[in-house]
Amino acid sequence: MAKIVYPLKQILDVKLRRVEEAEKVLKEKREALEREQEKLVAREKDRDKVLTHKRDKLKQLREELDHGTTTDKIQQMKAYLKVVDEKLKAEEKKVKDQQQQVKLAEEQVEIAKKDLNLKRLEVDKLQMHQKDWEQMMLKEQEIMDEREQDEIGNINYLLQQRTKNSAER
Fold first, then answer.
1. How far apart are alpha carbons 168 and 156 in whole angstroms?
2. Fewer CB within 10 Å of terminal CB in the chain, N or C?
3. pLDDT tens-digit readout, 77-108
4. Which pTM value belongs to this model?
């Protein structure tokens, strides 16, 4: 019996390679997302430090006001608070920008997941087709083998009949 080769084997191999590539892309996108999330955590920590510093300075200003102090010192503290406010705004902007980067990375992961699922679906369809095709080929091969056996049986029968007939003569 001859070995049957699936005619779409090369296409199946190509699609399997594409699935592997899509898995690699998804892994890379997930790693990129993790890096962006880590950056976001770091930005939030930086912002929280500045916010804590601002609260401390506000508390210090209130204490100075309660104890009574010179207007120069109060103005100096208020000016410093404005600087801290600007720094806090800059840190907030960094956090928002990083949140956008995280959002973009999440979208990239979703796109990669959809692509991978689509490619896996294509491979599954081809594999199902291959199984069906192989079953059909096996049935056809069995039918051909049966016909061949019938032919051999007929030839043997005819040979026996001829030898029997020639022996009787």
1. 18
2. C
3. 889 999 999 999 999 999 999 999 999 999 99
4. 0.72
Residue 4 lies in a domain: no
- Within 10 angstroms of residue 81's Cβ, the number of other Cβ atoms is 16
Least confident of 16-25, 116-125, 132-141: 132-141
Instruction: Please indicate, yes or no, if residue 163 is contained in any of the structural domains.
Output: yes
CA pair distance 159, 76, nearest whole angstrom = 123
Cβ atoms of 1 and 145 within 8 Å: the answer is yes
| Stated length of the chain | 169
The structure tokens listed for 132 are: 């069906």
**Strand, coil or helix: what is 164?**
helix
Instruction: Give the Cα separation of 99 and 93 in Å (integer).
Output: 10
Residue with tokens 């120069």, as numbered in its chain: 72
Query: Where in the sequence is the domain holding 131, given as residue range(s)?
Result: 9-168
